[in-house]
Amino acid sequence: MENKSHVATITPAVYRRLARNSELFFYSAAAGVNLLFLFIGFSPFFLHDQGESGRIIHPGMVIFDVVHGMSMLAWYVLSLVQALLVSSNNRRLHTKLGWVSVALIPLVAISSVIIALRSVGAMPSLIFFQIPYPHFLLLMLTQVSVFLVCSISGVLLRKRPNVHRVLMLTSSLSLLLGATARIPWLNDIFSGYIPVGYFGPVFAWCAVLTTLGSIRLGKFDRRLAAGYVLIVIANLTAYAVAGSSFWEHWATALVS
């Protein structure tokens, strides 16, 4: 009797399905970690109505902080839900909820700018990660600008899912510095409350995502790398300009 050996083979269709599943899991996991960073960083506000390190929020800022905090939380929760909906192939609900994202974009951006301007105006002498707060204003506005560019581009390119996913992930990553800056043990890993400690967590997380994305693809993930480079260049450029007399003039004009 002839023995026949059965060798498992992966057909092109099976390979494409496995590749697609790994991609969807990757973006769902990334969105989940982003949400975790956000919640940990802003847990004093979400759980105790306090600023970082137990700071009491100024009464005049409460309504702005609530709108900003809830819109940010909604954005990151929705990012995770949207990724999970695509993973479960529920594209109809994903498309409908996409319009909620469209509504959240201006709410997140406008509330972020208001919080930035009012915070600097209220605490002009504050030193944050060895950066005078009026100088720090440029970093906050730069991050909002990257968020706007990536999120709006992601909406416009929603019919190109591979590009859309990267843009929406990059938009979430661009605002994550506000959360990671409020996690002391995470900053300590990157030398504490100095500029490296401020930028380090998010820059490192972007590098991890780019590396994992490249491993998943089996080649260099150019789209994720482009998002990573955009975040790094935008923030470091803003940091370099923030200490100039040019920006001091504009910062004074904006908060006066």
Write a structural description.
With 256 residues, the chain is an all-alpha fold. The protein has one domain. Helices cover 77% and strands 2% of the residues. A two-stranded antiparallel ribbon has the order 1-2. Strand 1 and strand 2 form a beta hairpin. Helix 4 packs antiparallel against helix 5 and helix 5 packs antiparallel against helix 6. The longest helix has 32 residues. The protein is globular. About 2% of the residues have low confidence.
How far apart are the termini? Answer: 92 Å
Overall domain count = 1
Helical residue percent band: over 70%
Oligomer: single chain
Give the overall silhouette: globular
In sequence order, what are the helices and strands, one letter per element? Answer: HHHHEEHHHHHHH
| H/I helix tally | 11
Q: What's the number of extended β-strand segments?
A: 2
- What's the main sheet like? 2 strands, antiparallel
Report the mean per-residue pLDDT as an integer.
85
Rg of Cα set: 21 Å
Which strands sit side by side, in order, in the main sheet? 1-2
Quote the beta fraction.
Answer: under 5%
- Structural class based on helices, strands and sheet pairing: mainly alpha
Q: Uncertain spans, ≥5 residues at pLDDT below 50?
A: 4-8
Which characteristics define this entry?
11 helices, mainly alpha, globular, two-stranded antiparallel sheet, 256 residues
How would the blueprint of this fold be written?
Blueprint: H1 12-41, H2 43-48, H3 62-87, H4 91-122, E1 127-128, E2 131-132, H5 133-156, H6 161-174, H7 177-180, H8 184-189, H9 195-217, H10 222-242, H11 245-255
